[in-house]
Amino acid sequence: MVFFYISLYMVAVAQGGHKPCVQAFGADQFDASDPRESVSRSSFFNWWYFGMCAGTAVTLVVLSYIQDNIGWGLGFGIPCVVMAAALAVFLLGTRTYRYYYVSGTKQQSLFARAGEAFAEWRRSRQKSTAPLAISDPHQRHQAPEFSGQVDVEEQDQVVGKADLVEETKRVLRLFPIWATCLIYAVAFAQSSTFFTKQAATLDRRVGHRGLQVPPAALQSFISVTIVVFMPIYDRAIVPLARRYTGVSSGITMLQRIGAGMLLSLVSMVVAALVETHRLRVAMDAGLADKPKVPVPMSLWWMVPQYVLFGAADVFTMVGLQEFFYDQVPDKLRSVGLALYLSIFGVGSFISSGLVSGIDRVTAAKGHSWFSNNLNRGHLDYFYWLVAALSALELLAYVFIAATFKYKKNKAAAIETTAG
Fold first, then answer.
1. Tens-place pLDDT, residues 237-262
2. Cα–Cα distance between 329 and 337 in angstroms, integer?
3. Considering the entire predicted model, what is its pTM?
4. What is the annotated signal peptide range for this record (predicted)?
5. Which of helix, strand or coil describes residue 191?
6. Is the N or the C terminus of the chain less surrounded, counting Cβ atoms within 10 Å?
7. Which candidate, 310, 311, 300, places its Cα nearest to that of 278?
8. Which domains does the chain carry?
């Protein structure tokens, strides 16, 4: 178990470094000052997520079957071999990649520059509080001498401090958008947890031979929806919207995020209605106290909520990626994408806190909403709660997005003029 958990934490650390950096590096391969490449960069985020979800769809269908029917050793071994191949392909392209440098400044991370600024503040404090020691009493009456020379090192420090303050302001102004996307992340967490638990109670036989579909495999409907809808969005919807809005990406990044949040809200409403129907079917079939007996209800009932979530991801997920890449200072693009990823990390913690708190309160009253026997639980109530929170979040987001001012730069000129 020690080795297993160490390996899981190694994966988490690796993903924390890999995901934001490789995506920012990929987007950097497009010249933001070139109009055609700027449009292509917007499409890059669409096709990046397309590739991710295509791989996820295959993984959920193939690996879930291998893990359930053959073994977990092979189930973990296949991704290991694929990652080794991916690393080899990445290294083969080393000589063809574009690298950008900021002229006239030292290439340092935000944290290194913050540390230098703090150290300089400490030194200036010590100088200002240090007593003036003069050994020669005659020097007390001498006029101070002024130098006409410019201290280049001190000037660089002043400029560096000003840049750090400006970069910090640009990052902090994104916080309201970050905060109003957390409930979307809470809803996102249900697609891989309670949705799967719901699916495990249904009749999952398909075909004449009665092939049993693994509950986790239903998550592939999210990825399949993205794979199908992404090309339609990029090749049909965006060019059509561009004609009317004049925005290079069809609609602004914040509009795209808001559209996905609305679809997520609809998905949670549909999930609540399906769960209410499932509970009714279980009661009518006399299965309220028989959790191991499949409810006589087809797994296809759950497909709409997965499809809606897939469509929501096409808008919100890709919109968030592009937004947090584009709206941070150029030196902090990896940090921007890390902020985007942190939405889902924090959202998962919020979801866990909600579930734990509600479980404790409802269990004390007799019946937990999240009972191990879902036929006696009330996931539908929880879905309605998440839907209500999503609606409130969407209202707050619309207000904040309406007052947000995009970062002004050459690459975003069309975006900013369209609002």
1. 888 888 888 777 788 889 999 999 99
2. 12
3. 0.73
4. 1-16
5. coil
6. N
7. 300
8. 1-98 (no CATH), 162-406 (1.20.1250.20)
